[in-house]
Amino acid sequence: MGRVPALDEPLKKSLGPATAKVMAEALDLHTVGDLLHHYPRRYAERGELTTLSDLPLDEHVTVVAQVADARVHTFNGSKGRGQRLEVTITDGSGRVQLVFFGKGVHKPHKDLLPGTRAMFAGKVSLFNRRLQLAHPSYELLRGDSGESADSVVSWAGALIPIYPATTKLESWKIAKAVDAVLPSAVDAVDPLPPALREGRGLAELPEALRMIHRPRTKADIADARERLKWDEAFVLQVALARRRHADTQLPAVARRPAPDGILDAFDAKLPFTLTDGQTKVSKEIFDDLATEHPMHRLLQGEVGSGKTMVALRAMLAVVDTGGQAAMLAPTEVLAQQHHRSVTEMMGELAEGGMLGGAERATKVVLLTGSMGAAARRQALLDLVTGEAGLVIGTHALIEDKVQFHDLGLVVVDEQHRFGVEQRDALRGKGKQPPHLLVMTATPIPRTVAMTVFGDLETSVLDQLPAGRSPIVSHVVPAADKPHFLARAWERVREEVANGHQAYVVCPRIGDEEDQKKKSKASPEDEAEKRPPLAVLDVAEKLRAGPLAGLRIAVLHGRMHPDDKDDVMRRFAAGELDVLVATTVIEVGVNVPNATAMVIMDADRFGVSQLHQLRGRVGRGSAPGLCLLVSEMPEASPARQRLNAVATTLDGFELSRIDLEQRREGDVLGQAQSGVRSSLRVLTVIDDEEVIAAAREEATALVLADPDLTGHPGLRTALDALLSEEREEYLEKG
C-alpha cells in the first residue's frame, strides 16, 4: 500500500526493459511497489509434492514433482525423421507425461534424469486419454552445476511461493524478480498507526512483505496475510470514514413534512397498509430528512419488497416542505416504468396545475436523453420554476442544462449502475447538498455493504408485501433432456391460455456482427462455444414453432425509445402474450399479470442477475414460474450455480454464493471503482471480522484527526488508493 520513491521506481530499472515489459503487459505491474504487492497464490512444500491427481484440464499450472523416467522416441514425420522426448513425472498422488519435440528435446533430455526433482509449468492437455504437459518450462530443484546451485538456494527453502503467473511469465521468473526488489521493502511506509499495529499485535510492513514472499514457516504466511489484510481493510475504511465525516460537515435543509400535505393525502388513498418493514424504514428515512446535514442512506430490498413505495413517500415528504425530489434510473425503460407507476399510484395528486388535479397536487415530469425538444424544454422549465415537485430521469438529469428550483432529495435506483461521481454530480444541483437515498434490489452481504457502500447508512426491507405470490424455479437441461425444453414451451402456452403473460429472456440482441471471438472454453464444452442465444433469432423460432399463434413482441436496448415504450405499454395492457427481451427488463418492470419466465442460456447470467430477472414474475396474485434453460453438462459449476438459484428465493443467500463463485473484484469493481484494484489478500466474505474492526478503528481515527495530519504514512497509502480510483473513473469515462 505504501508508495514512496523507492517503491515508485519503475521495474525496468531493477529488472531490465524486457522483463519489465512482460510484467507490465501480462500482469499490469509497473513499479517496485506493484511487484511487492503481487503476492504468491499458494506455496508448495519442499518434501511434500503438489498433487498431480487433480490437475485441471486446459489450465496453466505449476507443479513440483520428481522424474520417474525419460525416453527419446524416433518417428517418421512429414519432414523426415524426428525425435520426441517423453518424460513421466510423479508426486506420489499421480503421474503426468511431459512431451518435448524436435530440437527442443536435447536440453531436457540432459536435465531431466530419473530421480531429478523440479518445478514444471505449462498448460494441461489431454492426449490419448492421458493428461500431459507439452513443452513445459521447468526449474531444477537440485543439481551440481553453478546455475543449479543458485536454484538450490532459491528453491530449496521449506516453502516455495507459487505466483499468479501467465504463459509468458512463469512463477519462478516472478520469484526471481521479487528477489531482486525485496530489499526495497525496508523503505515501505507503514500506513497503520503504531498504536493500532501494536495493539493488535501486527507485524511491521517491511517484515510482512518479506514473510509473504519468502516465508520460513507456515506461521510466517499467516502473520503476513493478517497484517496485509489489515492494510487493505483499514486504508479503504479510512477513505470511506473520511467521506462520511465530510458529509456530516455539509449543511442541508431539514425537511419535516407539514401535516395535511400531499404525503397525508397520498397515504389516505393507499388501498393497502404498509408492511412493518416499510413503516420502520420510512421512519429511519424521515428521521434523517429532519436533520440539518444530508441523509446518505442505502435502501436494500428484495425484488418486490416495496422499495419504490418507501422512496415515493420520502419524495412526497420533501415536496410538502416546498422542495423537489429527483429519481435517477439506470435505463430509459426503467425511468419510463417508474414514471408510469408513480403517476398511477398518485392519481390526481400527480396532476398539479392541471384541470382535475387535487388541490395539494404536484407535477411529475420525466426527463430522458431521447425526449423530443419541445417536451424536454417544458420539463426543464417545470424544474427550474418549481412547478414540478418530482422528476424521474436517466443520466440526462446530470447534464449542466438541468437546473432545479429547490432540490431537496435525490433517489438513485440500482446504485451498482452508477459511479460515486454521478451521484455527486446530481447532488451538486441543490443550493445546499440535497439528501440522498440509494436503492438496490441486489441483496448485498453485510461485509460488502461495509466495503462498497461504506459511506452510506443501511436500511433493509426483507419482507414481501401481502399478496405477492411464491415463485417456483426449475432448471431445464436442454442438451441432456430436449423434451424438457418442449415441455417448457407447453407451460408457457398453458399460462397464456389461463389469461396470463410470459417473458422469454436471452443474453444477446442478435443484430450484432457475428462475433468471431475465440472461445476460451474447453474443447469438450460445446455449449460454451456457440454464441449466446439472441432475442431476434429466438423470437422468430418461437413464432414459427412452439409458440405459433401467440402474440409475441421483442424488447431490447437498441430499439428506439418510443418503440420500447410502446411495446412495454402494450405488454402491460395485456395486448401481448409473450415478450422476448434482453435484460432491459431486469429491474423495475412491473406487470402483475406476467406469471412465467423462460431464461435462455441461463448459465450466461450471474446469480444475482438471475434472481433479479426472476423477480419480474409472481408480482400479482397468481404464482410465478421461472425456467432456467441451459445446455451445460450436469456436473459443471455453471449448472451448480443454476441449481442454487432454483432452490432458494433468499437473495442474501444467493449473493453470498455469487460472491464465493465469482472473483470478488467483479462485484466490487462494478459497484465502486478502485476497490477491485486495491483488494489483494482481503476477501470480503471471509474477512468480515477484520472489515468490521477496521471500520471501527477508521471511524475513531478520522473523528480525532479528519485531515490525518498525525498519520503521514496513512495519507500516502490513501493517496495511492484514491489515485487508482481516479484513474478507473477516467477509464470508465
Helix-strand blueprint:
Layout: H1 5-8, H2 11-15, H3 17-27, H4 32-36, E1 42-45, E2 60-77, E3 80-90, E4 95-101, H5 106-111, E5 117-127, E6 130-134, E7 137-140, H6 146-155, E8 159-162, H7 171-181, H8 194-199, H9 205-213, H10 218-249, H11 262-268, H12 276-289, E9 296-301, H13 307-320, E10 324-328, H14 332-346, E11 363-367, H15 373-385, E12 388-393, E13 407-413, H16 420-427, E14 435-440, H17 446-452, E15 457-461, E16 471-477, H18 482-497, E17 501-505, H19 526-529, H20 535-544, E18 552-555, H21 561-572, E19 578-581, E20 594-599, H22 607-614, E21 624-630, H23 637-647, H24 651-661, H25 664-671, H26 675-678, H27 688-704, H28 712-732
Parallel strand pairs: 4-6, 9-14, 9-15, 10-12, 10-13, 11-12, 13-14, 16-21, 17-19, 17-20, 18-19, 20-21
Antiparallel strand pairs: 1-8, 2-3, 2-5, 3-4, 5-6, 5-7
Helix pairs in contact: 9-10, 10-27, 10-28, 11-13, 12-13, 14-21, 17-27
